[in-house]
Amino acid sequence: MTSPLIDAEALAHLQAWQGRTETLRDDLTAAPVRGLSATLDRDDPLPEAGTRLPALWHWLYFLPHHRQSEIGEDGHAKRGGFLPPVPLPRRMWAGGRLTWEPGNPLQVGDAIERTSTIASVTHKAGRTGELVFVLVRHEVRNARGLALTEEHDIVYRAAAAPGEATPPPTPAPKDATFSRDLVPDDVLLFRYSALTFNGHRIHYDRRYVTQVEGYPGLIVHGPLIATLLVDLLRRNAPADAQLARFEFRAVRPTFDIAPFRVHGKPAEGSADGKTFSLWGEDADGWLTMQATAVLA
Ligand SMILES: C/C(=C\C(=O)SCCNC(=O)CCNC(=O)[C@H](O)C(C)(C)COP(=O)(O)OP(=O)(O)OC[C@H]1O[C@@H](n2cnc3c(N)ncnc32)[C@H](O)[C@@H]1OP(=O)(O)O)C(=O)O
C-alpha cells in the first residue's frame, strides 16, 4: 500500500474503540413484520403475539434513532459515537455470521435487548484500495435468555478516485437448484430503508451515490440481499425448517440499474442435507454475495 491514509498512530486511535459496548432495548412488535412480509412479496398470515420471527428479520429492531442533528454526510450517524471515527468516507455492510440459540426463538411480543461490542478494528490493503473493517459483535436476548449472536463486518473505503479499481468479479456458480429473479426498483429500496430506519444515502439518493461516492447507481442493501437469500431458502425448504447458523459476505455491490438473482442449492458434502449454499448474481453474471446456511 503506498501512502496509506491511515498510519499506525491513526489506527491505534481507532483501535481505542475496541471493547466499547452499547445496550439497546426494544419491543418485538408486529407492524414491521407485516411490512417486511409485504416488501418480500410474501403471503404470510398476519403476525400476532407468539409468531416466530423469521431469521434475519431482527434487523427490523434496535433501529438507529439518532437525532437529525447527529446525522453525517452519508446519512448515517456521525462517526465517533459508538462506532470509531474511521476517516474513510465510503461505508458498506461487508458481511456477517449469525448463530441462533436452539429452543429460544425470537417471537412477536418479546421484550428484547441487544448488547453490542466493538470486537476489532483492522486495516487492510484490498485489491480495490485501503480498507478498514470494524467488527461489531451483538448478543440479542429476550426474557428467556440469549436468542441470537451476530458478528457484523462493516467496511470503510477511501473516497472514489478517477479510474479506481472495482472489486474484481467472480463468475456466479451456474448449478443452482432454486433461484429467484428480482427487480431492485426504487420502491423496494425505499421500503427496506424505511423499515430499517436506514438513512444511508447510497440506497436512495442517486445524486449522492453517483457524484459523491462514485458508484453507477443506487446500491441494494447488503442485509436486504442476505434476507432475500434466507427467504429463498424458506420458500424451498420444509415449512418447519429453522436456521441454526448463517454466514454471508458481500463481495461486489448490486446496483439498482439492472435486475439481479438469488440462488441456492444443498451444499456439497452436506451429509445430513442441512447445509445450503446461497448466493447473489448480478445482471452480468458476477457473484455479488456468497452465503452458507445451516438448518437446525
Ligand atoms: C446497509 C448498509 C450498507 C450496505 O448494505 S452496502 C451494500 C452491501 N455491501 C457491498 O455491496 C459490499 C460489496 N463488496 C465490495 O465492494 C468488496 O468486496 C470490498 C468489501 C470493497 C472489498 O473488496 P477488495 O477487492 O478490495 O478486497 P479483497 O478481496 O482484496 O480483500 C482484502 C481483505 O479484506 C477481506 N475482505 C474482503 N471482503 C470482505 C468482506 N465482504 N467481509 C469481510 N472481509 C472481507 C479479505 O478477506 C482480505 O483480508 P485478508 O486478511 O485476507 O487480507 C449500511 O451501511 O447500513
Task: Give a verbal description of the structure.
With 296 residues, the protein is α+β, with helices and mostly antiparallel strands. The protein has one domain (8-295): Roll (Thiol Ester Dehydrase, Chain A). Helices cover 17% and strands 33% of the residues. It contains five helices and ten strands; from the N terminus they run H-E-H-E-E-E-E-E-H-H-H-E-E-E-E. The protein has a ten-stranded antiparallel sheet with strand order 1-3-4-5-2-7-10-9-8-6. Strand 3 (111-126) and strand 4 (129-142) form a beta hairpin. The radius of gyration is 19 Å and the shape is globular. The protein starts with 7 loop residues before the first helix and ends with a strand. The model has no long low-confidence stretch (mean pLDDT 96). Bound molecules: ligand LRN75BOA. Residues 91-95, 124, 126-128, 131, 133, 153, 155, 157, 167, 198, 200, 219, 221-223, 249-253 line the site of ligand LRN75BOA. InterPro entries: FAS1-like_DH_region, HotDog_dom_sf, Mitochondrial_HTD2. This is 3-methylfumaryl-CoA hydratase.
Helix/strand layout:
Layout: H1 8-15, E1 21-27, H2 31-39, E2 90-100, E3 111-126, E4 129-142, E5 145-157, E6 178-182, H3 186-195, H4 206-212, H5 222-236, E7 243-250, E8 260-266, E9 275-281, E10 287-295
Antiparallel strand pairs: 1-3, 2-5, 2-7, 3-4, 4-5, 6-8, 7-10, 8-9, 9-10
Helix pairs in contact: 2-3
The structure holds ligand LRN75BOA.
